[in-house]
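== Fold encoding ==
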Amino acid sequence: MNLKDPQEGVSDNQMSMFPDISDSPDSPKPKKKRGRPKKARTAATEKQKTKMINVAVDLDTFEQMQAAKAFFGDATKYINTLIKEDLKANGEKYRQYLLDLAARIGGGK
């Protein structure tokens, strides 16, 4: 064993038995932000909790949606407005369908 280089003559397998000092839990490591960076929230989404979803739209519909998007300010506000209007008009029909479906699946329980 060489006093100037204590690792000389030591195999990699023998060195793996000793923890690397730089990996010790005591050494401070900068915390990294994980995941995709968050976009700035708009005033509409700050009022209530939101759920991010991905929606596939065919290209013809997407091109037509651009004009409406310009009117509403952004696509999210436009799509949320459409969904709310649809639920207001058809919400009871959707609830009744779910109840009928549950009765058929559950055997009328």
Remarks:
- Residues 74-109 form one domain.
- The chain is about 50% helix and 0% strand.
